[in-house]
Amino acid sequence: MPEAISLDAVDRAIIGQLQGGFPICPHPYAVAAAGLGISQEDLLARLQRLLEARVLTRFGPLFQVERMGGVFLLAAMHVPPTRWSEVVDLVNSFPEVAHNYQRESAQQCAFNMWFVLAGESAAAVAATIRRIEEASGLPVCAFPKLQEFFVDMRLPVRV
Amino acid sequence: MRAPAAAEANSSLDAVDRALVIATQGGLPLVPQPYERLAEALGYSAEEVMRRLQSLLERGIIRRIGVVPNHYAIGYTANGMSVWDVPDEQIDEFGGKVGALDFVTHCYQRPRRLPDWPYNLFAMVHGSSRGEVLAKVAIIANLLGSACRAHDVLFSTRILKKTGLRIGGSD
Predict the structure, then answer these.
(1) pTM recorded for the entire structure
(2) Domain boundaries, chain A
(3) pLDDT tens-place string over residues A26-48
(4) Nearest to A155 among B24, B71, B166 (CB)
(5) Among the CATH numbers 3.30.565.10, 3.40.50.150, 3.30.1360.180, 3.30.70.3460, which is that of A65-143?
(6) Long-range CB contacts (< 8 A, 24+ apart) of B40-44?
(7) Is B60:A67 a contact under the CB 8 Å cutoff?
(8) CB contact under 8 A, B60 and A3
Protein backbone atom coordinates (compact mmCIF):
# COMPACT_ATOMS: atom_id res chain seq x y z
CA MET A 1 0.00 0.00 0.00
CA PRO A 2 2.80 2.56 0.40
CA GLU A 3 2.67 4.87 -2.59
CA ALA A 4 5.80 6.24 -4.15
CA ILE A 5 5.01 9.82 -4.96
CA SER A 6 7.54 12.46 -4.20
CA LEU A 7 6.68 15.07 -1.62
CA ASP A 8 8.06 18.58 -1.85
CA ALA A 9 8.63 20.99 1.04
CA VAL A 10 5.08 22.38 0.80
CA ASP A 11 3.53 18.90 0.92
CA ARG A 12 5.65 18.10 3.95
CA ALA A 13 4.56 21.34 5.63
CA ILE A 14 0.90 20.52 4.96
CA ILE A 15 1.25 17.03 6.43
CA GLY A 16 3.35 18.23 9.34
CA GLN A 17 1.32 21.28 10.31
CA LEU A 18 -2.23 20.31 9.40
CA GLN A 19 -2.58 17.17 11.55
CA GLY A 20 -4.86 19.24 13.73
CA GLY A 21 -6.16 22.74 14.16
CA PHE A 22 -7.93 23.09 10.81
CA PRO A 23 -10.09 26.17 11.42
CA ILE A 24 -13.85 26.29 11.77
CA CYS A 25 -14.73 29.51 9.94
CA PRO A 26 -16.38 30.43 6.61
CA HIS A 27 -13.17 30.14 4.51
CA PRO A 28 -11.02 27.66 6.43
CA TYR A 29 -8.81 26.63 3.50
CA ALA A 30 -7.90 30.26 2.87
CA VAL A 31 -6.94 30.66 6.55
CA ALA A 32 -4.95 27.41 6.65
CA ALA A 33 -3.25 28.25 3.34
CA ALA A 34 -2.20 31.68 4.62
CA GLY A 35 -0.58 29.98 7.62
CA LEU A 36 1.44 27.83 5.22
CA GLY A 37 2.30 30.74 2.93
CA ILE A 38 0.45 29.31 -0.09
CA SER A 39 -2.79 30.08 -1.89
CA GLN A 40 -6.13 28.47 -1.12
CA GLU A 41 -6.18 26.94 -4.62
CA ASP A 42 -2.75 25.41 -4.13
CA LEU A 43 -3.77 23.92 -0.76
CA LEU A 44 -6.96 22.41 -2.18
CA ALA A 45 -5.13 20.96 -5.19
CA ARG A 46 -2.39 19.48 -3.02
CA LEU A 47 -4.85 17.92 -0.55
CA GLN A 48 -6.69 16.38 -3.48
CA ARG A 49 -3.48 14.96 -4.89
CA LEU A 50 -2.21 13.66 -1.52
CA LEU A 51 -5.53 11.91 -0.91
CA GLU A 52 -5.58 10.39 -4.39
CA ALA A 53 -2.02 9.13 -3.96
CA ARG A 54 -3.03 7.77 -0.53
CA VAL A 55 -0.30 9.70 1.22
CA LEU A 56 -3.27 10.86 3.29
CA THR A 57 -5.90 8.35 4.30
CA ARG A 58 -8.39 11.11 5.18
CA PHE A 59 -8.82 14.82 5.61
CA GLY A 60 -11.38 15.98 8.13
CA PRO A 61 -12.50 15.50 11.71
CA LEU A 62 -11.09 12.60 13.71
CA PHE A 63 -13.69 11.26 16.08
CA GLN A 64 -13.29 9.90 19.56
CA VAL A 65 -16.10 7.42 19.39
CA GLU A 66 -16.07 6.74 23.16
CA ARG A 67 -17.10 10.35 23.75
CA MET A 68 -20.29 9.76 21.80
CA GLY A 69 -21.16 6.65 23.75
CA GLY A 70 -19.49 4.35 21.23
CA VAL A 71 -16.64 1.89 21.36
CA PHE A 72 -13.30 1.25 19.69
CA LEU A 73 -12.24 -2.34 20.22
CA LEU A 74 -9.00 -4.07 19.23
CA ALA A 75 -9.49 -7.68 18.18
CA ALA A 76 -7.23 -10.39 16.83
CA MET A 77 -7.53 -13.67 14.98
CA HIS A 78 -5.28 -16.49 13.98
CA VAL A 79 -6.06 -17.01 10.30
CA PRO A 80 -4.60 -20.13 8.65
CA PRO A 81 -2.47 -19.11 5.64
CA THR A 82 -4.62 -21.20 3.27
CA ARG A 83 -7.69 -19.12 4.17
CA TRP A 84 -5.95 -15.76 4.36
CA SER A 85 -7.47 -13.80 1.45
CA GLU A 86 -10.96 -15.14 1.99
CA VAL A 87 -10.92 -14.09 5.66
CA VAL A 88 -9.39 -10.67 4.83
CA ASP A 89 -12.31 -10.00 2.46
CA LEU A 90 -14.83 -11.19 5.01
CA VAL A 91 -13.46 -9.12 7.91
CA ASN A 92 -12.99 -6.01 5.75
CA SER A 93 -16.55 -6.27 4.45
CA PHE A 94 -17.89 -5.10 7.83
CA PRO A 95 -18.19 -1.29 7.97
CA GLU A 96 -17.48 -1.49 11.73
CA VAL A 97 -13.92 -2.66 10.90
CA ALA A 98 -12.06 0.66 10.86
CA HIS A 99 -8.49 -0.64 10.41
CA ASN A 100 -7.05 -4.05 9.78
CA TYR A 101 -3.37 -5.08 9.83
CA GLN A 102 -1.46 -8.23 9.10
CA ARG A 103 1.17 -8.66 11.82
CA GLU A 104 4.01 -11.05 12.50
CA SER A 105 6.46 -11.53 15.34
CA ALA A 106 9.80 -13.20 15.75
CA GLN A 107 8.25 -15.32 18.49
CA GLN A 108 5.49 -16.67 16.22
CA CYS A 109 2.73 -15.13 18.28
CA ALA A 110 -0.70 -16.68 18.22
CA PHE A 111 -2.45 -13.95 16.22
CA ASN A 112 -1.65 -12.78 12.69
CA MET A 113 -4.63 -10.50 11.94
CA TRP A 114 -5.33 -7.46 14.13
CA PHE A 115 -8.23 -5.11 13.55
CA VAL A 116 -10.06 -2.29 15.26
CA LEU A 117 -13.83 -2.24 15.40
CA ALA A 118 -15.60 1.10 15.81
CA GLY A 119 -19.27 1.06 16.69
CA GLU A 120 -21.97 3.17 18.23
CA SER A 121 -22.38 0.81 21.19
CA ALA A 122 -20.64 -2.09 22.92
CA ALA A 123 -23.55 -4.29 21.88
CA ALA A 124 -23.13 -3.38 18.19
CA VAL A 125 -19.42 -4.21 18.30
CA ALA A 126 -20.04 -7.49 20.16
CA ALA A 127 -22.63 -8.42 17.53
CA THR A 128 -20.10 -7.75 14.75
CA ILE A 129 -17.56 -10.02 16.46
CA ARG A 130 -20.14 -12.79 16.63
CA ARG A 131 -20.98 -12.36 12.95
CA ILE A 132 -17.30 -12.55 11.99
CA GLU A 133 -16.90 -15.71 14.09
CA GLU A 134 -19.99 -17.33 12.57
CA ALA A 135 -19.11 -16.44 9.01
CA SER A 136 -15.45 -17.47 9.29
CA GLY A 137 -15.74 -20.37 11.72
CA LEU A 138 -12.69 -18.91 13.49
CA PRO A 139 -12.51 -17.45 17.01
CA VAL A 140 -12.04 -13.69 17.43
CA CYS A 141 -10.16 -12.59 20.52
CA ALA A 142 -11.12 -9.14 21.89
CA PHE A 143 -8.63 -6.88 23.65
CA PRO A 144 -10.68 -4.07 25.21
CA LYS A 145 -8.85 -1.05 26.60
CA LEU A 146 -8.66 -1.35 30.38
CA GLN A 147 -6.68 1.84 30.78
CA GLU A 148 -5.40 4.47 28.34
CA PHE A 149 -2.03 5.88 29.36
CA PHE A 150 -1.26 7.93 26.27
CA VAL A 151 -2.56 8.52 22.73
CA ASP A 152 -1.19 10.91 20.14
CA MET A 153 -0.84 9.63 16.64
CA ARG A 154 0.68 12.78 15.18
CA LEU A 155 4.09 12.00 13.68
CA PRO A 156 6.63 14.27 11.98
CA VAL A 157 7.09 13.71 8.23
CA ARG A 158 10.23 11.69 7.51
CA VAL A 159 10.36 11.67 3.72
CA MET B 1 -6.77 9.09 32.13
CA ARG B 2 -9.07 6.14 32.78
CA ALA B 3 -10.95 5.01 29.74
CA PRO B 4 -14.43 3.98 30.81
CA ALA B 5 -15.77 0.81 29.26
CA ALA B 6 -18.50 2.68 27.43
CA ALA B 7 -21.60 0.56 27.33
CA GLU B 8 -24.49 2.96 26.98
CA ALA B 9 -26.09 4.24 23.83
CA ASN B 10 -24.97 7.42 22.08
CA SER B 11 -26.50 9.66 24.70
CA SER B 12 -24.36 12.69 23.95
CA LEU B 13 -25.20 12.93 20.23
CA ASP B 14 -28.50 14.42 19.17
CA ALA B 15 -29.91 13.92 15.69
CA VAL B 16 -28.16 16.97 14.24
CA ASP B 17 -24.76 16.04 15.69
CA ARG B 18 -25.17 12.50 14.45
CA ALA B 19 -26.03 13.73 10.94
CA LEU B 20 -22.87 15.86 11.03
CA VAL B 21 -20.71 12.93 12.12
CA ILE B 22 -22.10 10.80 9.30
CA ALA B 23 -21.62 13.61 6.76
CA THR B 24 -17.98 14.26 7.74
CA GLN B 25 -16.61 10.83 8.73
CA GLY B 26 -15.40 10.25 5.17
CA GLY B 27 -13.74 13.69 5.06
CA LEU B 28 -14.44 17.39 4.62
CA PRO B 29 -15.44 18.68 1.18
CA LEU B 30 -12.45 20.09 -0.74
CA VAL B 31 -14.15 23.34 -1.71
CA PRO B 32 -13.41 26.87 -0.49
CA GLN B 33 -16.44 26.91 1.85
CA PRO B 34 -16.73 23.32 3.11
CA TYR B 35 -19.02 24.10 6.05
CA GLU B 36 -21.38 25.98 3.75
CA ARG B 37 -21.39 22.93 1.47
CA LEU B 38 -22.20 20.61 4.40
CA ALA B 39 -24.92 22.97 5.56
CA GLU B 40 -26.57 22.90 2.13
CA ALA B 41 -26.44 19.11 2.01
CA LEU B 42 -27.93 18.73 5.49
CA GLY B 43 -30.44 21.58 5.37
CA TYR B 44 -28.97 23.68 8.19
CA SER B 45 -27.31 27.08 8.16
CA ALA B 46 -23.52 27.29 7.85
CA GLU B 47 -23.47 29.06 11.23
CA GLU B 48 -25.27 26.10 12.82
CA VAL B 49 -22.82 23.61 11.26
CA MET B 50 -19.81 25.59 12.49
CA ARG B 51 -21.30 26.06 15.97
CA ARG B 52 -22.02 22.32 16.21
CA LEU B 53 -18.54 21.32 15.02
CA GLN B 54 -16.97 23.71 17.52
CA SER B 55 -19.05 22.16 20.29
CA LEU B 56 -18.11 18.60 19.20
CA LEU B 57 -14.46 19.68 19.30
CA GLU B 58 -14.85 21.23 22.76
CA ARG B 59 -16.57 18.12 24.08
CA GLY B 60 -13.74 15.95 22.73
CA ILE B 61 -16.08 14.02 20.41
CA ILE B 62 -13.91 15.41 17.62
CA ARG B 63 -10.31 14.85 18.71
CA ARG B 64 -8.91 17.12 16.00
CA ILE B 65 -9.60 18.30 12.44
CA GLY B 66 -6.86 17.85 9.87
CA VAL B 67 -4.92 15.45 7.70
CA VAL B 68 -4.55 11.78 8.60
CA PRO B 69 -1.34 10.59 6.95
CA ASN B 70 -0.63 7.07 5.81
CA HIS B 71 2.36 6.30 8.04
CA TYR B 72 4.07 4.24 5.37
CA ALA B 73 3.91 7.09 2.88
CA ILE B 74 5.48 9.62 5.27
CA GLY B 75 8.44 7.40 6.08
CA TYR B 76 7.28 5.15 8.90
CA THR B 77 7.55 1.83 7.15
CA ALA B 78 8.13 -0.10 10.36
CA ASN B 79 5.23 -0.17 12.78
CA GLY B 80 5.72 -2.31 15.85
CA MET B 81 3.11 -3.16 18.43
CA SER B 82 5.21 -3.92 21.48
CA VAL B 83 3.48 -5.99 24.15
CA TRP B 84 4.65 -6.56 27.70
CA ASP B 85 3.79 -8.77 30.65
CA VAL B 86 4.20 -6.69 33.79
CA PRO B 87 2.69 -7.24 37.26
CA ASP B 88 -0.85 -5.84 37.48
CA GLU B 89 0.08 -4.06 40.74
CA GLN B 90 2.64 -1.98 38.84
CA ILE B 91 0.66 -1.35 35.65
CA ASP B 92 -0.16 2.28 36.52
CA GLU B 93 3.45 3.13 37.22
CA PHE B 94 4.81 1.37 34.12
CA GLY B 95 1.99 2.46 31.83
CA GLY B 96 2.63 6.06 32.82
CA LYS B 97 6.38 5.78 32.22
CA VAL B 98 6.11 4.00 28.88
CA GLY B 99 3.33 6.31 27.69
CA ALA B 100 5.55 9.30 28.47
CA LEU B 101 8.30 8.18 26.06
CA ASP B 102 8.28 10.51 23.08
CA PHE B 103 8.38 7.72 20.50
CA VAL B 104 5.31 5.86 21.83
CA THR B 105 2.14 6.89 19.96
CA HIS B 106 -0.34 4.90 22.03
CA CYS B 107 -0.06 3.02 25.27
CA TYR B 108 -2.83 0.94 26.84
CA GLN B 109 -3.50 -1.69 29.44
CA ARG B 110 -5.42 -4.60 27.89
CA PRO B 111 -6.46 -8.00 29.28
CA ARG B 112 -4.22 -11.07 29.08
CA ARG B 113 -5.58 -14.04 27.14
CA LEU B 114 -3.92 -17.03 28.73
CA PRO B 115 -2.36 -19.33 27.74
CA ASP B 116 -1.69 -17.78 24.30
CA TRP B 117 -1.27 -14.21 25.34
CA PRO B 118 0.40 -13.26 28.63
CA TYR B 119 0.80 -9.53 27.82
CA ASN B 120 -1.12 -6.75 29.58
CA LEU B 121 0.69 -3.56 28.42
CA PHE B 122 0.61 -2.44 24.77
CA ALA B 123 2.84 0.34 23.37
CA MET B 124 2.91 1.25 19.66
CA VAL B 125 6.26 2.31 18.23
CA HIS B 126 6.76 3.70 14.69
CA GLY B 127 10.06 4.00 12.83
CA SER B 128 11.76 4.02 9.44
CA SER B 129 13.13 0.51 9.88
CA ARG B 130 12.62 -2.51 12.06
CA GLY B 131 16.06 -1.88 13.51
CA GLU B 132 15.01 1.57 14.67
CA VAL B 133 11.82 0.20 16.22
CA LEU B 134 13.73 -2.59 17.96
CA ALA B 135 16.21 -0.07 19.36
CA LYS B 136 13.29 1.86 20.84
CA VAL B 137 11.75 -1.33 22.16
CA ALA B 138 15.07 -2.01 23.90
CA ILE B 139 14.71 1.35 25.66
CA ILE B 140 11.28 0.24 26.95
CA ALA B 141 12.72 -3.13 28.04
CA ASN B 142 15.42 -1.31 29.94
CA LEU B 143 12.89 0.96 31.62
CA LEU B 144 10.75 -1.98 32.76
CA GLY B 145 13.77 -4.00 33.88
CA SER B 146 13.22 -7.24 35.73
CA ALA B 147 9.56 -6.42 36.43
CA CYS B 148 8.82 -7.41 32.85
CA ARG B 149 8.35 -11.15 32.60
CA ALA B 150 8.00 -11.45 28.81
CA HIS B 151 7.57 -9.25 25.77
CA ASP B 152 7.12 -9.44 22.02
CA VAL B 153 7.00 -7.02 19.07
CA LEU B 154 4.42 -7.53 16.32
CA PHE B 155 5.35 -5.77 13.10
CA SER B 156 2.66 -4.94 10.61
CA THR B 157 3.44 -6.56 7.29
CA ARG B 158 0.43 -5.15 5.43
CA ILE B 159 -2.32 -2.60 5.94
CA LEU B 160 -5.42 -4.58 5.01
CA LYS B 161 -7.87 -1.73 5.63
CA LYS B 162 -7.76 1.82 6.97
CA THR B 163 -10.96 3.78 6.70
CA GLY B 164 -11.72 4.96 10.24
CA LEU B 165 -15.13 5.36 11.80
CA ARG B 166 -18.19 4.58 9.65
CA ILE B 167 -21.53 4.84 11.40
CA GLY B 168 -24.98 5.14 9.93
CA GLY B 169 -24.80 1.88 7.96
CA SER B 170 -25.35 3.31 4.49
CA ASP B 171 -22.04 3.48 2.70
Answers:
(1) 0.82
(2) 9-52, 65-143
(3) 999 999 999 999 999 999 999 99
(4) B71
(5) 3.30.70.3460
(6) B44/B16
(7) yes
(8) no
